[in-house]
């Protein structure tokens, strides 16, 4: 392993290799030193992990603690002036994504039944209906339209609202606050303000559900007497945020990627049976949740390096999913490849709870969109599409599209 690779200072800000590819410095780093020290702007030294095997091993090892930050709130190198994380941060009630076992296990097990493959299969037809209705709406508009606003964001928002029992009429409040919360460039206090506002809203909602539970996931949770209101609120926050921002960005960026790969798009249109595999490949290729954080709870060996106790560790899923040691021609979008084994839903105890739901939504969403809009195309040059390089979940801010005819 080369010790000569220069130590990176923070993460690159731009996608200099194109909208879908890892920044060039990240690719170079993976080739030179897949587990590498990284200097943080505030002066402390942590690590960045970019190789597939190392990322997988790390995610499977809970000694790489998730108590590195307050959920996805505390990003040490991007927000100058924040204290360096050298010991486990306090646990925010309910945010089990930022907990370790056994706290994590206690909360996650209360939800596993709600998101099983079987439950999602039962919901599939309903999700297809929701997608069709949203596409009916889009077909009535005069193009060009913004695909994110008219389709990619509403579809998962409608679905998660219904599942959780959050009124869709309140979407403005949680969509705006989610975007503020996930914006890496906003000052810390503004992110906290967004978090606090959303929590105030959700705390009221779960309090009402505890008093008069209905037929939805948050009501089912509210029936558990051993969950405090603060915990219910935190869980609701996590599910609502993870449930709409992630899939929306996969639908938006995924459509952009397909439109930029017309031969792949044509194959997919010609044979819809390719859809499940295409969704996995888009997940691998795009890795919209690129960066996650961990914290070494003890001295740990990884990829031939020793990561000292108390180190912050930045993990790049995108780099791992483009590792040529794991996937042939990794930078090629190939909807026929076997992309399962990608790390885009994470790995280990925190592996995405909503992955089956996300898959059903993506299959229904892409299938419906391609069928109903056979002439769909970008309404602006590709290099004018606004990329979410400033956000913790990657994607496009808007995707202006147009078409000449629609179909049923
Ligand atoms: C966890 C990605 C959709 C709920 C995760 C993690 C990733 C991820 C990478 C692991 C984070 C870590 O280890 O620190 C995605 C992507 C999605 C998606 C790319 C869409 C394409 C969803 C949906 C839900 C959801 C629809 C709705 C319920 C969660 C939850 C966790 C999680 C609750 C935390 C699990 C835990 O800590 O045990 N997701 N996700 N996700 N995701 Fe997703």
TrEMBL record:
Transmembrane helix in keyword set: no
Metal-binding keyword on record: yes
Molecular functions (GO terms): heme binding; iron ion binding; monooxygenase activity; oxidoreductase activity, acting on paired donors, with incorporation or reduction of molecular oxygen
Pfam families documented for this protein: p450
Sequence segments annotated as region (Disordered): 1-26
Biased amino acid composition, Basic and acidic residues: 11-26
Keywords: Heme, Iron, Metal-binding, Monooxygenase, Oxidoreductase
InterPro entries noted in UniProt: Cyt_P450, Cyt_P450_B, Cyt_P450_CS, Cyt_P450_sf
Family: Belongs to the cytochrome P450 family.
Name the UniProt record assigns to this protein: Cytochrome P450 105C1
Organism encoding this protein: Streptomyces himastatinicus ATCC 53653
């Amino acid at each position: 392993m080369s010790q000569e690779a220069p130590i990176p200072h923070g993460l690159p800000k731009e996608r200099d290799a194109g909208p879908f590819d890892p920044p060039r410095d990240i690719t170079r780093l993976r080739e030179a030193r897949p587990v590498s020290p990284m200097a943080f702007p505030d002066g402390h030294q942590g690590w960045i992990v970019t190789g597939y095997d190392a990322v997988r091993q790390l995610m499977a090892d809970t000694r790489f603690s998730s108590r590195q930050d307050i959920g996805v709130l505390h990003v040490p190198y991007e927000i100058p002036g924040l204290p360096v994380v050298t010991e486990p941060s306090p646990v925010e009630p309910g945010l089990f994504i930022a907990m370790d076992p056994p706290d994590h296990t206690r909360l996650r097990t209360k939800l596993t039944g709600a998101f099983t493959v079987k439950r999602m299969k039962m919901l599939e037809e309903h999700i297809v209906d929701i997608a069709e209705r949203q596409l009916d709406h889009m077909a009535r508009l005069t193009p060009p339209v913004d695909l994110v606003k008219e389709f990619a964001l509403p579809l998962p928002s409608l679905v998660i609202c219904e599942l959780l029992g959050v009124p869709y009429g309140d979407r403005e409040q949680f969509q705006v606050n989610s975007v503020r919360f996930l914006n890496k460039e906003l000052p810390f206090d503004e992110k906290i303000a967004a978090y606090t506002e959303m929590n105030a809203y959700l705390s009221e909602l779960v309090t009402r559900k505890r008093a008069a539970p209905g037929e939805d996931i948050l009501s089912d949770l509210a029936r558990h007497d051993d969950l405090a209101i603060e915990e219910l609120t935190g869980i609701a926050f996590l599910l609502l945020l993870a449930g709409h921002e992630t899939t929306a960005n996969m639908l938006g960026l995924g459509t952009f990627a397909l439109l930029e790969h017309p031969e792949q798009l044509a194959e997919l249109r010609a044979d819809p049976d390719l859809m499940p595999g295409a969704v996995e490949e888009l997940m691998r290729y795009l890795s919209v949740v690129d960066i996650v954080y961990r914290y070494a709870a003890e001295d740990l060996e990884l990829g031939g390096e020793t990561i000292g106790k108390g180190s912050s560790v930045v993990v790049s899923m995108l780099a791992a999913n483009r590792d040529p040691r794991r996937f042939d021609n990794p930078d090629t979008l190939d909807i026929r490849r076997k992309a399962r084994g990608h790390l885009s839903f994470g790995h280990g105890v925190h592996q995405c709870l909503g992955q089956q739901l996300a898959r059903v939504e993506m299959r229904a969403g892409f299938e419906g969109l391609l069928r109903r809009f056979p002439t769909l195309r970008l309404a602006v040059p590709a290099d004018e599409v606004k990329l979410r390089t400033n956000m913790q979940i990657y994607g496009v801010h808007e995707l202006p599209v147009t078409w000449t005819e629609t179909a049923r």
